[in-house]
Amino acid sequence: RDLMGANAEWAAKTRALLAERSIAMVNVISAPGSGKTTLLERMIPALAGRLRFAVLEGDLETTRDAERLDALDIPVYQLLTGGSCHLEAKLVHHALLDLPLDDLEVVIVENVGNLVCPAEFDIGEAGKLAILSVTEGEDKPVKYPLLFHEAVAAVITKIDLLPYVPFKLEECRRYLAQTNPAAPVFEVSSLTGAGMDAWLTWFTAFVAAHR
Amino acid sequence: RDLMGANAEWAAKTRALLAERSIAMVNVISAPGSGKTTLLERMIPALAGRLRFAVLEGDLETTRDAERLDALDIPVYQLLTGGSCHLEAKLVHHALLDLPLDDLEVVIVENVGNLVCPAEFDIGEAGKLAILSVTEGEDKPVKYPLLFHEAVAAVITKIDLLPYVPFKLEECRRYLAQTNPAAPVFEVSSLTGAGMDAWLTWFTAFVAAHR
Ligand SMILES: Nc1nc2c(ncn2[C@@H]2O[C@H](COP(=O)(O)OP(=O)(O)OP(=O)(O)O)[C@@H](O)[C@H]2O)c(=O)[nH]1
Ligand SMILES: Nc1nc2c(ncn2[C@@H]2O[C@H](COP(=O)(O)OP(=O)(O)OP(=O)(O)O)[C@@H](O)[C@H]2O)c(=O)[nH]1
Ligand SMILES: [Mg+2]
Ligand SMILES: [Mg+2]
Ligand SMILES: [Zn+2]
Ligand SMILES: [Zn+2]
C-alpha cells in the first residue's frame, strides 16, 4: 500500500479545502528548540490586527506549546502524535475541519521539532518555513538539506546571541543560497525584536499571495 | 514482517560482538546542533591517553562531522543514511566489523541529530547519552520523553550561554529527574571547559563498568 500516495491524497484534499475558503497555510519546521513557538508568540500579536490567525500545534507529548499560543486569543488546536516524528496530511486535514474556517485567513502549523521527517510529508501547505537558530551551527542547511531545499523562506533566529556563539552567518547564508537560491533569508531575534519588521512584511505579502 | 524484531536481533548480535572484545559502546543522541560533535572533540583528546576510542558518526548527508573527529587521530567511520532519520542496528553492526576491534576499548556512536526516532532503535549500546543544550529550552525532557527516560545520563551543554538565554536550569533538572530519577545530570561547556572534569570522571567509570 502506497503510504506516501495516501498522504498526497489528503494533502490535495486540504489544498482544495483551503482554496475554497481563501486561507493560506504555512508549515513551520525546525529542530527542537530553534524558537518556533517564541517566534509565533511575537508574530501573531504583531499581525493579529490585520490578519485572522489559527495555529495547529504538533508535538509528541504535552500541550505546553498550544497553551502558550492559546494565551494570544486565537484558535489553537494541539495535535499530539504520541511518538510519531512528523505530522501527516490526514491528521492535519481533520484538525482543520475543527477550526472556525469561515473566520480565518491564515493557518500556521507548528510541526513536530525535527529537521528530518516533517519535510518529507506534504500536509497541503502553501509553503514550508525553515527555522534555524544561530546556536545550532552554520552547517545545518547542508547536513539536513531537504527542508531547506523545499522551504519558501528561511528564518535564522536568536540573533541576539551572535556575540556569544561561534556561528558563521555568512557561511550559513552561502549554504542556504546553494541549497535554495530562490528562498529569501531573514535574521530575527524574538527576544529583542531585531529583524522582525522585514520578516513580518514578507510574511504578510506571502499570505496575501496565497489566499 | 516485524521490523523492530529484526532490529532487536542485530542489536543482540552487536552486544555479543562487543562483549567478546570487552568494548563499551555508547549511543549519543540529541537534537541537531546541541553540541554532540563539539563535546566529542573535547572528550576524546582529554581521555585518549587512558582509553582507546573509535567513533561511528551517523548523518543524513556530508562527512563534516567525521572529518572533524578524524582530526583527533582515532578510527572514525561515517554512516550516511541519505534521508533516514535514525541509525539502525544492522547498519551499526556492519560498521563495527570494519573497525580495528582488537585495539579498541570504547566505541562512541554519534547518532543522527534527532530527539525523536533514534531513541526508538536499540543499536546494541551499553547505554544512551542524552544531550540537551541550554539554548533549546528547559521543557525538552517532557516534550520528547523517550530519550531522556532511557538514557543512562544526561549532559546539559553550552552552559557558557546561561547569562544570555531564558533557560530555567532548575526546572530542567526537575523534568529530568521526574522522567528518569536514576540518571545523573551533568552541566558542561565545550567552549570554556566548565563541568568537563566531573563529566569525564563519570564517563570513564561507566566505560570501565561496561567493558
Ligand atoms: N536568546 C534567545 N532565545 C530564544 C529566542 N527565541 C526563543 N528562545 C529560547 O529558545 C528556547 C526554545 O524556544 P521555543 O520557542 O520553545 O522553541 P521551539 O522551536 O518551539 O521548540 P519545540 O516546539 O520543542 O521544537 C526557549 O528557551 C526560548 O526562550 C531568541 O530570539 N533569543
Ligand atoms: N556557546 C557554545 N557553543 C557551542 C558549545 N558546544 C558546541 N557549540 C556550538 O554549537 C554548534 C553545533 O555544534 P555541533 O557540535 O556541531 O552540534 P551537533 O550536535 O554535533 O550537531 P549535529 O551533528 O548536526 O546534530 C556549533 O556552532 C558549535 O560551535 C558550547 O559549549 N558553547
Ligand atoms: Mg514549540
Ligand atoms: Mg554532530
Ligand atoms: Zn520520522
Ligand atoms: Zn524516524
How would you sum up this structure in a few lines?
Helix content of chain A is 39%, strand content 18%. With 211 residues, the first copy, chain A, is α/β, with parallel strands linked by helices.
Task: Give an overview in words.
Chain A has 211 residues and is an alpha/beta fold. Chain A has a single domain, classed as Rossmann fold, CATH 3.40.50.300. Chain A is built from 8 helices and 7 strands. Chain A has a 7-stranded parallel sheet with strand order 3-2-4-1-5-6-7, with helices on both faces. In chain A, β6, α7 and β7 form a beta-alpha-beta unit. The first copy, chain A, is globular and about 45 Å long. The mean pLDDT of chain A is 97. The site of one zinc ion has 3 residues of chain A, from loops.
List keywords for this structure.
211 residues, seven-stranded parallel sheet, binds guanosine-5'-triphosphate, binds zinc ion, binds magnesium ion, alpha/beta
